[in-house]
């Protein structure tokens, strides 16, 4: 009986209306297929909402790192109708912000772990097409956990940033940005950080509170770190 009802409803639709409906569906599918042609690979989300329901803001950098291992250094996903392009390595970041600075050289719109840039015209990056209106994300976490660039990236080893002759490696790390849009206060900040940290270490013995567990790199990015500062004995 249900089938008869369905067939009756279909028969009640005029041929012209049916042709218009099928044409609209076909044109929509063709438009979406052509629109996504040439863009970087990435996960398929829900209609309109895209990948947004699966995003956890506190650990989104880890999700992007997981997606990078599957799709590569350049990947894409959609959220509420907007296309996002994620850069997951220093190599592609250099290509975007140095080699193609005229296309991607605008200042970032945020200073979080994933600064982003909105593109106003279509361009290319590597072998992929970057459509107009796409949002470019630079995942600093993935960029600085690249096994090809850093040996044992999960291990705390500050000496990895120093070359054998004692000079800091150029553009590594990239916490102050790259190219002509890099932070103009980098030299001042590095000097202040050196003075503050060296003064603290000179005057205090730093340790974790008794009974507290050591935080992993993933937890440190989204948690508070308590440190006990014990004054050093004066000679």
From TrEMBL:
Pfam families: p450. It is found in: Microsome membrane. Coiled coil: none annotated. GO terms for biological process: hormone biosynthetic process; progesterone metabolic process. GO terms for molecular function: heme binding; iron ion binding; steroid 17-alpha-monooxygenase activity. Its cofactor is heme. The chain crosses the membrane at residues 12-34. Its EC number is 1.14.14.1. Its main location: membrane. SUPFAM superfamilies: Cytochrome P450 (SSF48264). InterPro entries: Cyt_P450 (IPR001128), Cyt_P450_CS (IPR017972), Cyt_P450_sf (IPR036396). It is an enzyme of class 1 (oxidoreductase). Keywords: Endoplasmic reticulum, Heme, Iron, Membrane, Metal-binding, Microsome, Monooxygenase, Oxidoreductase, Transmembrane, Transmembrane helix. The keyword Cell inner membrane does not apply. It comes from the Eukaryota. Belongs to the cytochrome P450 family. This is unspecific monooxygenase. It comes from Larinioides sclopetarius.
């Amino acid at each position: 009986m249900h089938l008869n009802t369905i067939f009756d409803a279909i028969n009640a639709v005029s041929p012209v209306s049916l042709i218009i409906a099928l044409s609209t569906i076909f044109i929509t599918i063709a438009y979406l297929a052509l629109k996504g042609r040439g863009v970087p690979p990435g996960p398929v989300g829900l209609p309109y909402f895209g990948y947004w329901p699966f995003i956890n803001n506190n650990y989104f950098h880890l999700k992007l790192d997981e997606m990078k291992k599957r799709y590569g250094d350049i990947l894409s996903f959609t959220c509420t109708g907007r296309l996002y392009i994620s850069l997951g390595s220093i190599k592609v970041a250099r290509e975007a912000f140095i080699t193609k600075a005229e296309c991607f050289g605008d200042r970032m719109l945020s200073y979080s772990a994933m600064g982003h840039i909105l593109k106003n015209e279509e361009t290319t990056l590597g072998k992929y097409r970057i459509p107009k209106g796409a949002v470019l994300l630079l995942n600093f976490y993935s960029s600085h956990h690249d096994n090809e660039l850093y040996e044992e990236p999960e291990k705390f080893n500050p000496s990895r940033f120093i070359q054998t002759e004692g000079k800091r490696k150029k553009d590594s790390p990239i916490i102050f940005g790259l190219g002509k849009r890099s932070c103009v206060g980098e030299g001042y900040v590095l000097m202040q950080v050196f003075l503050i940290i060296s003064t603290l270490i000179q005057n205090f013995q730093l340790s974790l509170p008794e009974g507290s567990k050591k935080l992993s790199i993933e937890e440190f990015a989204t948690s508070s770190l308590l440190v006990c500062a014990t004054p050093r004995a004066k000679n």
